[in-house]
Specification:
The protein is mainly alpha-helical and 176 residues long. 71% of the residues lie in helices and 2% in strands.
Length: 176
Amino acid sequence: MTTMQIPIDALTSRFNLGGRLDGVRSQSIASRFANLKPISEFLDFKRLSKPANFGEVQTRVNYNLGYFSSNYAAVFVMLSLYALLNNPLLLFVIILAVGGMYGIGRLGGRDLELGFTRATTTQLYTTLLVICIPLGLLSGPFATLLWLIGATGVTVMGHASFMDRPIENAFSEEAV
């Protein structure tokens, strides 16, 4: 079976995101969350201010997305957990699909023999598919995904645009 390759460069070059995603690709999960900034710095209410113009919003967002990227990843993870806990059917379908595939994989290609019947791995995968797809569509994964994208976007972009850069960084870049 061939795998489908998604050309990430074709997607990121149009939005000029290539440089931002290179750091994400090269880091492991542990090193990404090792760079978390302290909560007192992330939620420093003294640095919250309304930007004067759109140019200032752009510079704040550009700086904060790089500086607080690990914190924003943690916000995304927390919002993902919140979305799954508020959609128990979707959580059940995910657990059922992962647990079913794990259980079928544990058979090692052998047939499942119950006292009265025998089921091949193909039949087991088909049964899992027939159960999980309708339940998965019934659970509303698209609405949950769109909510997650919207909530993360509003939270991250709101924080990045209203959080002012530290004073020492603001003056260091403006010097000639």
